[in-house]
Structure formats: C-alpha cells, structure tokens
Design brief:
Helix content: 55-70%
Structural class: mainly alpha
Order of helices and strands: HHHEEHHE
CATH topology: Fusion Protein Consisting Of Minor Coat Protein, Glycine Rich Linker, Tola, And A His Tag, Chain: A, Domain 2
Strand order of the largest sheet: 2-1-3
CATH class: Alpha Beta
Shape: rod-shaped
Radius of gyration: 59 Å
Number of strands: 3
Oligomer: single chain
C-alpha cells in the first residue's frame, strides 16, 4: 500500500512539473536589450475586395449624382430653348400677320386708286365705235408723287390705229392724275411710279 501511495505522489509531481514547463515564460531569460527591440505588431485585416467594392459603389453614386445634375441641366436648357422657340414663333407669326394685313391694305388702296383713275380716263375718253370688236391697247405711264404725268408710251397696240389714237388723245388731255395724291409714299413708289393702263373696247 505504501508503494501505491508513493507512485501516486510521483505521478502528481511529474504532471505538475510538465505543467510548469508548458506554462513558464522563457522570455525572462532573454537579455533585456533584445526584449526591448521585440515589438509586438497587431495587424488589422481589411479585405482588398471589400475596399474595391466600396470604391465602386461610391463611384456609381457619384456618377448617378452627376448624371442627375446633367439631366436636370439639360431639361432646364430644353425648357429655355422651347420657350425661346415659342416666343420666336409667336413673334414671327405676329409679324407675318401684320405684314399680311399691310399687304391687304395696300392692295385694297391700289385697287381703289386704279378704279378711280380708270373712271376718270373713261369719262374723258372718246371711244370710237367698233361694233363687236374686242380689242385693247396698253400704255405705260410714269408719274411724279404730285400726280403729274411725266411720260406715257404705247407698249401694246390694239391693231386698230383709230382705237390707239383715241386712247392717246385721252391721255394727252390730262397732265395730272390727282387720284394718287395723298397715297402712302411706299404704295405710290411700288405701284404708281410706273404703271400700266389698259384701254378696252369692251368693258
């Protein structure tokens, strides 16, 4: 029994010795100078792939923001351009309407003036009797703004000498066409500075 107890104590001692060897810090036996130079470094691991993914996400966000800004700027530019175009179109349409109104007014005044001139010429023209002949002669008349007849010339003969001479006699009997007096100067220059007058055998 004594031998068993001794063996048990020896076993405990061996186990304690082994435990002491495993747990002892042998760095205490390293010279002090070497121990000071030994600096423990702790590394913080940050996966490169994760960092790259974060950069990509950030880039995508920035690109999205930039695209949204550009899109808004483009929309604003389009709105401004559309507004300008509408204003331009409206202005041009209004100008066209004004020009058309002025043209209609000019045509109306010119037609009235021509009718008055023809009535006056017819009142002094001694038209020869030609039966059923349907002929006409045409003259070009040059006027001054005062209505004075500066010149007139036969440019298209009727083929009938008597008829042409009667028309010439009517023109020579007047020296002024007063119907153009007071007419807008632009209308006069465009329509009566030089104009054609037709004498017809049949109205």
């Amino acid at each position: 029994m004594t031998n068993s107890f001794v063996g048990f104590l020896n076993s405990i001692f061996v186990h304690l010795f082994l435990l002491a060897i495993l747990t002892i810090d042998f760095s205490i036996f390293v010279p002090q100078k070497d121990r000071i130079n030994t600096i423990p470094i702790e590394f913080v691991t940050f996966p490169i792939e994760k960092e790259n993914n974060l950069k990509k996400i950030e880039n995508i966000k920035n690109e999205s923001i930039e695209k949204n800004i550009q899109k808004k700027e483009l929309i604003e530019d389009l709105k401004v351009d559309k507004k300008k175009q509408l204003n331009f179109d409206s202005k041009r349409k209004l100008e066209d309407q004004i020009a058309e109104t002025k043209l209609l007014k000019e045509r109306r005044e010119v037609q009235i003036t021509i009718a008055l001139i023809q009535d006056r010429i017819n009142s002094i023209w001694k038209k020869p009797s030609l039966g059923n002949k349907n002929i006409q002669s045409e003259f070009v008349i040059n006027l001054a703004p005062s209505g004075e007849i500066l010149s007139y010339d036969l440019i298209s003969s009727s083929g009938d000498k008597v008829f042409d001479e009667s028309a010439l006699a009517a023109l020579s009997s007047i020296s002024f066409i007063t119907e153009v007096i007071g007419l807008d100067r632009k209308y006069f220059e465009r329509n009566f500075r030089s104009f054609n007058l037709v004498f017809k055998s049949k109205n």
